[in-house]
Every structure is written in C-alpha cells, then in structure tokens.
Amino acid sequence: MASQPLTSHPGPQSDSLRGTALGALRGVGQVDFQASVWTSLVILAALWVESWEMGLFAVIGAVVSTLTARLLAVEHDTVAQGLMTYCGVLGAIAMVVYLGHHPSTYVLAVSAALTCTLVTATLNHLLVPFGLRAFTGPFCFVALVMVLGAPSFERVWHGTPETAITPATPKSPVVSWTDLWQGFFSNVSQIFFVGTWYVGLIMLAGLFLAGWKVGLFAVVGSVVGLLTAWALGAPAALIGEGIYGYNAVLTSLAFGVVLLRPTAWNHGFTVVAAAAATALTASLSVLFETFGSHTFTWPFNITTWALLAAVPLLPRITLLTDADADADAA
Amino acid sequence: MASQPLTSHPGPQSDSLRGTALGALRGVGQVDFQASVWTSLVILAALWVESWEMGLFAVIGAVVSTLTARLLAVEHDTVAQGLMTYCGVLGAIAMVVYLGHHPSTYVLAVSAALTCTLVTATLNHLLVPFGLRAFTGPFCFVALVMVLGAPSFERVWHGTPETAITPATPKSPVVSWTDLWQGFFSNVSQIFFVGTWYVGLIMLAGLFLAGWKVGLFAVVGSVVGLLTAWALGAPAALIGEGIYGYNAVLTSLAFGVVLLRPTAWNHGFTVVAAAAATALTASLSVLFETFGSHTFTWPFNITTWALLAAVPLLPRITLLTDADADADAA
Amino acid sequence: MASQPLTSHPGPQSDSLRGTALGALRGVGQVDFQASVWTSLVILAALWVESWEMGLFAVIGAVVSTLTARLLAVEHDTVAQGLMTYCGVLGAIAMVVYLGHHPSTYVLAVSAALTCTLVTATLNHLLVPFGLRAFTGPFCFVALVMVLGAPSFERVWHGTPETAITPATPKSPVVSWTDLWQGFFSNVSQIFFVGTWYVGLIMLAGLFLAGWKVGLFAVVGSVVGLLTAWALGAPAALIGEGIYGYNAVLTSLAFGVVLLRPTAWNHGFTVVAAAAATALTASLSVLFETFGSHTFTWPFNITTWALLAAVPLLPRITLLTDADADADAA
Questions:
Q1: What is the DSSP letter of A262?
Q2: DSSP C320
C-alpha cells in the first residue's frame, strides 16, 4: 500500500479511464503492498502459469472491484493505486478455489469482488480511530462468510472441489531438503492460494522488480516462516506447500517495508511478528476448521493489526512517517 | 429509531410516568425502527394473535427494560422514544421461544430484559467513534450468551422446547406459490420469531400505519429476500417460513427509511444490502449452529453496520441528515 | 491497577533497576488489581504452596514480561506498577497448566510472557477511544491462541496434561456444605488456575493486606458467585472447585474497588456485574470447548468491559475519578 504519485495528469475523462485501468492492474501487486505495474504484471502472469482459471478469476476480481469503487465515486487516487482492488482479486480467486469452476462461481466471484470493495471502505473507516489500515481483512471477512454460507445453497454448492482440500498429510515434523526449498518459494505463492514452487519463484522475482528491499523482506519472511514452523514441529508436508509460511511473508513485507523505519530494533520486531504470524496459523486453522471455513490471510491481518497497535506504547519501535517514505523514494 | 417530538409537556412527575409508559409501548415498534404508538399496538396485538405467551413475554420485556432504564436515570427522551426498550422486548420473547414456558423462564426473561437495557447503553457508547448505532445488536449479544449458557444450568434448562426447533425440512430449492406468498408475510413476522403468515400480515399493516414509505420498504425487503434466497437455491420450506427474509426486511427498513436519502443510487444500495443480509443468513446459521446458538438478527446487524460504515468513503451514497428528516416530517 | 506513587527517587540507573524489580513483583498482585508488594508476595507464596511448577512459572512470566516492557522502553511508571507484567504472569502459568511440564513448555512460557506484554500495549491502545482498559484481556487472547494452536505442533504437544482436564463431574446441582466453603476460597485461587481451597485462603489474606475494602469486595464477589451458580443450578462439584466463581471475584474487585465510587447504586451495580460474570462463565465454557480452548478470565473481561462501557449513558452509576482515589488514599 505504498503510495506512488501519478506522474502525468491529462484531461479528467481520460485520466479517470487510465486511473481505473491502472487501479485494476495495480490491485494485483497491492496484495503484496506493491503499486508497481511491473510487479503486478509478473504476479498476474504467474497466476496464469498456475492455471487459466486462477488467472481469469484474478482479472475478473480486479476489474469488478475497481469498477465498483469507480461507480461509487471513491476518491480517484485511492482507486488508481489499486487500494480498492486487491481484496477483490483475492476474493474472486478464493471463489474458484473453494467452490470449484462452475457457471455459478462466476456470479459469486462478481459478488465477492463487489462486496470486497464495500468492506474495504468499511474497514478503512472503522480502523481510523485506531490508526490502523484494512490490509487484506476485507477479503478475509468476505471469503469467510461466503465459504461458510455456500453449502446451504443448492444452486451455488456443487460439493467440495479438489482445490479446496488440504491433502491428508503425514504428521511427521521431519523436514526434507525438498520441503525446505519448495516451501521457501511456495510461501510466496500461497498468498494467492497457490502451492506450486515455480509460481512462487516467478512472484518473488516480481517482488524484486519493486525494489531489492521488497524482495529481501519477502525472503526474510519466508525464511522466518520455515524456521518457526520447523522449530515448533509443524507437519513437514504442509511446510513444503507454503501453508505455514505465507502469512510470515506478508507480515515481513508489512513491517519491514511499509510500516516501520529501518532500525535494528524494528528489524527484530519484524522477525518476531513474522514468527508470531506463523504460530498463529495453526491456532486459526483449528478455529476455522471447527465450523467449516478456512484460514485465508487472517494470521497476517491479526498479527499485523495487534503488533502495529502496540507500537504507540513501545517507544523503541518507530513507525515510518510520510517524510521517511519520501526520503526513501528520493 | 426515528425521532418524534412529544407534543405536550405537563409537570415533570406525570411527564416522567407518561414517558416511561410511552417508552414501554414504543419499544415494540422500535424493533422495526418505528416510534408510532399505533404501529406498536398493532404489532403487539399480532404477537397475542400468535400466542398469549408471545404477547405476555413481549409485555414483560417492554416493562422491565423501560423501568431499568428509568431507574438508572437514562436521558428522558431516549426512554420515551422506546430506544432503551426494543432489545428487551426481543430478549424476553427469545427466552420463551428458546427455553420453553416454565416458571424459571420468567426469571430469565426479566434478567434478559434488564441486561438488554445495559448492553444497549454499552453498544451505543462503543459505537460512537464509528458513527454507528446499536440497532438490535444488544439483543443479539444477550440472547446469544443466554441461549448458549442455559443448558449448563439444571434449574433453567428443561430440554429444547418445540418452538426452538427448525423442523427438518426437505432441502429442495423448488419454490411453490404457497412458499412465496406465505414467505412474503412471514418475513415480516419472523423478526419476532413468528413464522405464521397472517401474523406477518397484521404486522405489515401496522408498518403501513407508520407511513406508506415504511410499509413500502418492508415490502421491498421481503421481496428482495425471497428473490435472493430463491436465486441462491435455499430450501423452499425455510423460505416459506420467513427464515431467509426477515433480515432483509429489517435491512431494507434501516437503509430505505432511516439511514439514507431517497436517491436512485441509495435505493440500489438498499437492495444490495437486503440481498447481502439474506445471503449472510446462511453463513451465520452455520456458524452459530456449530456451538449451539441461533442466528437471531445478527445478519441484519452485521450487514447494516458494515455497509453503513462504508458510506463515508463512498461519495455516491448519501446519509439522511437531521435536516432531511425534518423536511420529510413537515 | 490502582496507582501508588513511588516515594523515593534515587539516580535514574538504580531507579530503573529498582522499578523493573518492583514491576515484576507487583505484576503478581496486579492480577487482582493490587500494586501492594505485600499482597504480591503472599499470592506468590500461595502459588509455591500449590506446587513448585506454578510458583516457578509465575516468576518466569513476571520476569520475562517486565524485561520485555523495559527493553521496548515502555514508560517507567507503567512498568514499575506491574501494569505490563500481570498478563505475562497468568500467561506463563497457563502454559504449564494446559501444556504440562516439559522442556518445550519453558520456551512457550517465555513466548507467552513476551507476547502478553506486546498485546497489553495493543489492547490499552485500542481501548482508548472507548475509555476502557485492557484488564486481563491480553492474557486471554494470548492463552486462547496458544492453547488452540499447540496440538498442531509435534515438538510442543505431548498430550493433554492432567492439570488441564476438568474432571467429569456429577451434574447434580445439590450443593453440600463442603462445596460451599471450599468454593468460597477456591473462587479466589481459581483466578490463578488453582482449585485448592487453602491456596485461596492464603490469597484472600493477601488481598486483605492491601486494604479491608479489597478483601471485602473479594468476599462479596465470591459469595455472589456461589449464590448465582447455586440459583441457576450449576453442577455442585464445579462450584466447589471455584470454576463458577473466580470471574465474579475479579468483577467485584474491579467495580467495587477500582472503577466505581462507593454509593449504594454502585454497590448494587457491582453485585449485578458479579452475577452476570458468573452466568457468562457457562456460555463461554460451551463456546470455547467447541473448538478446543478454555474459558480463562474471558467472562470477567467481557462483563467488565460491557458494563463499564454502559456507565456513560447511565447517570445513576458513577465512576471513581482520580480526585476520589486520592481522597480515599489520604
């Protein structure tokens, strides 16, 4: 959710069209907090590499949520930066992953993207008194209730699709070298529900395009996620699929790149946050499985909201100010 | 929750008595956001038509919650408008529906009404930073924990009463004409836990007494609820009992009559909100059934809080101001 | 959480060390809202009487959470009063109770204490807009997610320990004299997960050391808890172990000693709050058991937050101001 000024300002009409198109594209990168058009293009390409359904639903989500924001007259810059779009991208992908590829899923993906835009406005308003931002919380709320409700509706529910099943894995915590290096990359792709290591590799390359610091903190998050999950004794098979690390990657990007100033104490705090997000993944998986939903990026959101809200009372940890960000960009 | 000025101001003592009595009565109509005494009387009559237990417990809830507010010195106008009462009405009815008609239920209904008044103060205070109001949230919280806790207590729990069981229905989504027209009316009565179509018809008549616009948006909500539930493929039998539509009626009344200005965009937003509340009904039913509670009016509250909180960031959607309301009343 | 001014102010370095040591000790008493060093020492002794594991983990929690706060440069007085410590004390004890005494539990106790300090900062910041304080909420959140997640990790989970099992009790609500008098004391010790009556007796003596009023409201809370649980028909065996009363004791201490002015109406409100916390214990036990967690002091926190947030709209109930507290101390 870094800000990146629009350099050219043509007439209002074409500006509006260009802003909407840019917003739809940047929404893909904003899932990882990046407004870079190149990063977005690479991540989108990676989704098409995984499968045409993933790529198509990402596009549907991006277009519908951006148009919804535009129609409801959301402030121009917010739309053009993709900040009303990224939850819709995830929401539409989640529909095809958790409901399967059926005609009704297209209708639900459109509904999910539309609702994600509304709930993005909701959360960003509700979090103002706390000095927090929505992150991917809107997507988590919308996906939670839609996945929860879907089996009640005959015209929507066609049985659990293969993509939604976490395969019954051996519980063994003995991690092989393959688990480790595949997990390192799939930690990055699992943010978009993809457990394929080379999709993660492409996405990581996309993150490095946004800046070496962005790529570096994605790497740090992935490594911290692997180490924490290994140390606690999580099932090796899940570590290899990135199930235990994708929240650590997001948390590391959030604190390391977007939220905190680059000090030694803050880097330590970022590592603690990424480890906490990894541990929380198990707790929330148990919680959501109880009533038939999924973990999504809740561990990242809850960890980041909780630790960010602690900062004002912890003088050792310092927030990045707009001035810092400008100096950094210069 | 519309405001309606008290026209006569006699001496403070009789004013206080009259205010308390008016508050207790208006609390019935305020469940549907109406301060009209006539609407309240008609709805109360409809509850007695359903059964004397429903009527009696509504009266107990109204009296106890209003007296609690009075004893705790809540501001006079708030009490006289029934704004500390409507949750207690629902809370007391919920006790007889979910615990059955036993001597202990009277004690619990009094506790529920008292607690509803306290939690109404709580929520109205907590929601101030967000610019939201409590709606029927206090009732939902109190009923949630009381229904959840009751089976743990020997002197309170006498087995699940017949009234608390949603009959095992055929799952078929094929809606008959009878399902449709009965559902249309029971969507209105189900707000008060009543699935009898002619009770809903009487209540709808009561809403039209408060103004043609009030009745119209109740109709709109009921129709949107029916259509959404049918389109998604909800079980026809539940549609016929109003299970899928009562939250849509409340949501439509909230956005259509109380919260938004009468513009085309806002009417569209109201329809989307009513549809969202219908879909959310399934999600929350699954969630609450997992640990043994019930849906109550959570879908209405959550939908209305979420979409109302989004409005400040969506310039196309415009809130009704006090000036509008005065112009409307004049 | 009563304030008690530091009387001597030596040089900053020794002041800092002394403040940290005092904070670690006072954190034990602050679980019951008491900054008294004597109260803390007596409660800590009581924990060692129960078992050396309980005593040791309380010390680990106190030291780790206080040092965490110090390292993160939390404001000196807050640390020295034990206000960043009390959740860590409970968090570390909870680990040994719910995970058993294993080498890995020491690592988790340190993590729990560290996280409790962070989440104490979080909640105290998030609750500012509502005029509320964190109470033992941070401990409840941290213990909730750690107990929930632990069974997913091979290196952490060694089966449910004996200490975590509520024995299958006869459901009979017929209370014997032994249940009553043992419950009266274990209501006090159960705050620290201890169901042994003489440990509760020692702790109650410690509370009287902090002032007769403190001891008195602990007694009131315990009696209200017993009466409410008996009247509702809770299982007698659980009443005897303090399971139904410890939240009432904390709630009574909070409203009776710390939060409200000493008026008749406020005393009545305190009794209602203690009774509500007792009833809520059953609801939350059912809720948390559904997905495999525990009740902790959630009933106290939820009741106290809810009823304290109601006070601004209830003029009959009056908050203790700083001026009152000073007059009281003089």
A1: S
A2: P
Stated pTM of the model: 0.92
Q: Could you report the per-residue pLDDT of B98-124, keeping only the tens digit for each?
A: 999 999 999 999 999 999 999 999 999
Contacts for C99-104 with beta carbons within 8 Å, 24 or more apart? C99/C147, C99/C150, C99/C156, C99/C157, C99/C158, C99/C161, C99/C164, C100/C158, C100/C159, C100/C160, C100/C161, C100/C162, C100/C163, C100/C164, C101/C53, C101/C161, C102/C158, C104/C155, C104/C156, C104/C158
* A291 is a domain residue: yes
Considering only CB atoms, B291 lies closest to which of C129, C290, C307, namely C290
A260: β partners: A319
* Residue B2 domain-assigned (yes or no): no
Percent of chain A with pLDDT over 90: 79
Q: How many domains does chain C have?
A: 2
**Do residues C188 and C318 share a domain?**
yes
Strand partners, B319: B260
Could you identify the residue written with the tokens 């408008």? B81
| Domain that residue C124 falls in | 18-152
Query: B103 in a domain, yes or no?
Result: yes
Residue A249, in any domain of the structure:
yes
- Look up the ipTM and state it: 0.90
Residues 6+ apart with CB under 8 A from C51: none
What percent helix, strand, coil does chain A show, rounded to 5?
Answer: 70, 0, 25
Q: Which of C173, C282, C286 has the CB atom closest to B155's CB atom?
A: C173
Cβ proximity of C246 and C190 under 8 Å: yes
- CATH code for position C97: 1.10.3430.10
Residues A316, C72 contacting (CB under 8 angstroms): yes
C316 near B CB under 8 A: yes
Inter-chain residue contact C316 with B72, CB threshold 8 Å: yes
Reported as a single tens digit per residue, the pLDDT across B261-319 is 999 999 999 999 999 999 999 899 888 887 777 899 999 999 999 999 999 999 999 99
pLDDT at residue number A4 = 43
**3 state DSSP class of B37:** helix
